[in-house]
Amino acid sequence: MVYPTPPYEVGGNITCVSDPALLDIEGVVVALTATDTLFHLGKEEISFPPQGPDRLGRLTRHLLKQQNLYPLYPGPEGICIDQEQAEIYARLPYNPHLLILPSDLRYFIRDLENCVVLNPERLAKGLVGGTYAKLELHPPKHEKTMVGSVNAQIIKV
């Protein structure tokens, strides 16, 4: 596969989106990617600030501050990236209300930079079950943040 990936055409009542995708669902802006950006970014990180142990939050802030769902250039070996397309489709023109970043790294739900960030981890890990997320979204009460408008659970399989 090449990143970014265009949406599949399956027909019927199924809507497929590209990877990455920026969606507006009744006023709730959701950004998501299936690519393990956090893992790739963590492998390339060379500076570890002393102010806190929140590695996953720090990695996620890189994406939000750089306004890009895949800010690595060049990408890691084994990942095919169309850089021209990535500059267009991986951009975050603004912080979304909800950012979904599935990763092999530990699952989490956090409020960062007025954005609810979710890593549901993986549904399957080798031969054993993993985790998935159950979300309930409501339109944001305040335009800047989704805190209080999202009910999220990480459920182990």
Question: In words, what does this structure look like?
Answer:
With 157 residues, the chain is α/β, with parallel strands linked by helices. Helices cover 17% and strands 29% of the residues. It has three helices and eleven strands, in the order βββααβαβββββββ. It has a five-stranded mixed β-sheet with strand order 2-3-5-7-6, with helices on one face. The protein has a two-stranded parallel sheet with strand order 1-4. A two-stranded antiparallel ribbon has the order 8-9. β2 and β3 form a beta hairpin. It is globular and about 40 Å long. The relative contact order is 0.18. InterPro entries: DNA_pol_a/d/e_bsu, DNA_pol_alpha_bsu. This is DNA polymerase alpha subunit B. Keywords: DNA replication, Nucleus. Belongs to the DNA polymerase alpha subunit B family. One of its GO terms (molecular function) is DNA binding.
List the topology elements.
Layout: E1 2-3, E2 21-25, E3 28-32, H1 37-44, H2 55-66, E4 80-81, H3 83-89, E5 98-100, E6 108-112, E7 115-119, E8 124-125, E9 128-129, E10 131-137, E11 150-156
Parallel strand pairs: 1-4, 3-5, 5-7
Antiparallel strand pairs: 2-3, 6-7, 8-9, 10-11
Please describe the structure with a list of short key phrases separated by commas or semicolons.
single chain; 157 residues; alpha/beta; 5-stranded mixed beta sheet; two-stranded parallel sheet; 3 helices; 11 strands; globular
Spans of at least 5 consecutive residues with low confidence: none
In terms of DSSP E residues, the strand content is 25-35%
Task: Estimate the mean pLDDT confidence.
Answer: 88
Largest sheet, in brief, is: 5 strands, mixed
Estimated radius of gyration? 16 Å
Portion of residues within helices: 10-25%
Number of strands: 11
Element order: H for helix, E for strand: EEEHHEHEEEEEEE
Strands of the widest sheet, in order across it, are: 2-3-5-7-6
Secondary structure tally, helices:
3
Query: In one word, what is the shape?
Result: globular
Q: Helix/strand/pairing class, anyone?
A: alpha/beta
**Amino-to-carboxy terminus distance:** 27 Å
Subcellular location: Nucleus
GO molecular function, one term: DNA binding
GO cellular component, one term: alpha DNA polymerase:primase complex
Organism: Cherax quadricarinatus (Australian red claw crayfish)
